[in-house]
Backbone:
């Protein structure tokens, strides 16, 4: 799990630029499923055939980033955000572009630190003028955070655990299921462009047309000094999402998930995320509606280069997802959800 997490977290893949991470994931999953497809937007869909209900499980593979808006005559890059990027988090950090160009994020001289905004910042790629900068980076190029994953006891610190930890869970789940006979049809979708508005999952869910849907992503915690109250902590187990900004989990899906966690003795926490959403949002609004839930991995410092998660939560999320996908699920409107 550590090697997989490290590889996934360190791979480049800001929203709209998922080719590198998609290639890595395709190589990892192709031995565990019957078919692997890529759709028009770049979602990677790994299919485990069966005769039972169609189950879609989404984990977004994109990450936050920056986009170049202007290159000045001295070769400094001005930029805007791709997804939720704080200037305070970015200051002093390294970013990397798809071609391997690395830059340092600096700021103009400001009298008040609170005035720091992305438009007061620049990326320095070591160029001396616009021409030499333009040989490495163009207007519209997208960069991602750059850094290595580290393991400290049971904890991992890395960029993009949002949501490469979810991708790791989905890959390990497929690996587990490969040795088992299962009734359900599994559509494991590694989605694109979640960080800019849950876009990839929307079209993937239309294509898959699932009977039931799940997302695997990270969620915030309430266990750091003076953090906003939230009943989720690192190491307390994966969470069963009850609500976020884009979904109210179907009560029977929530209960179904609770029943499975209890039966299999998997630690879990109930998650009410006040701000933020996941791929469950677009999935549950597909066509005539799809009962959907989400498993989240508790993470601290989300959308920073130093996100932290607990390996036990990630391992337990795999156990949980395997148990869910192995269980008897009804067809939409006819099975479990009508009990
Ligand atoms: Co995110
Ligand atoms: Zn995410």
Residues:
């Amino acid at each position: 799990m550590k090697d997989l997490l490290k590889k996934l977290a360190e791979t480049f893949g800001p929203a709209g630029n998922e080719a590198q991470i998609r290639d890595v994931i395709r190589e990892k999953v192709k031995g565990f499923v019957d078919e692997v497809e890529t759709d028009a937007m770049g979602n990677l869909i790994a299919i485990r055939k069966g005769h039972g209900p169609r189950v879609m499980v989404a984990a977004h593979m994109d990450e936050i980033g920056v986009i170049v808006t202007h290159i000045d005559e001295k070769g400094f890059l001005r930029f805007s955000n791709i997804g939720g990027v704080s200037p305070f988090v970015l200051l002093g950090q390294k970013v990397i572009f798809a071609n391997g160009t690395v830059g340092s994020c600096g700021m103009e001289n400001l009298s008040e630190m609170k005035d720091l905004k992305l438009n007061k910042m620049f990326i320095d790629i070591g160029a001396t003028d616009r021409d030499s900068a333009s040989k490495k980076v163009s207007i519209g190029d997208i960069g991602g955070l750059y850094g290595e994953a580290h393991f400290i006891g049971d904890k991992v610190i890395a960029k993009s655990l949002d949501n490469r930890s979810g991708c790791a869970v989905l890959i390990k789940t497929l690996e587990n299921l490969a040795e088992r006979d299962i009734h359900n049809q599994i559509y494991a979708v590694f989605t694109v462009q979640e960080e800019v508005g849950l876009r990839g999952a929307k079209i993937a869910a239309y294509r898959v047309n699932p009977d039931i849907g799940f997302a695997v992503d990270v969620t915030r915690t309430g266990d750091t000094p003076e953090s906003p109250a939230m009943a989720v902590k690192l190491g307390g187990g994966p969470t069963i999402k009850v609500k976020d900004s884009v979904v109210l989990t179907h009560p029977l899906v929530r209960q179904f998930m609770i029943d499975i966690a209890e039966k299999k003795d998997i630690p879990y926490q109930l998650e009410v995320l006040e701000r933020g959403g996941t791929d469950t949002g677009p999935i549950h609004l597909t066509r005539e509606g799809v009962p959907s839930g989400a498993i989240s991995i508790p993470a601290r410092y989300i959308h920073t280069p130093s996100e932290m998660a607990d390996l036990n939560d990630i391992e337990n999320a795999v156990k949980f997802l395997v148990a869910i996908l192995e269980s008897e699920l009804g067809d939409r409107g006819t099975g479990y959800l009508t009990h």
In short: The chain has a mean pLDDT of 95.
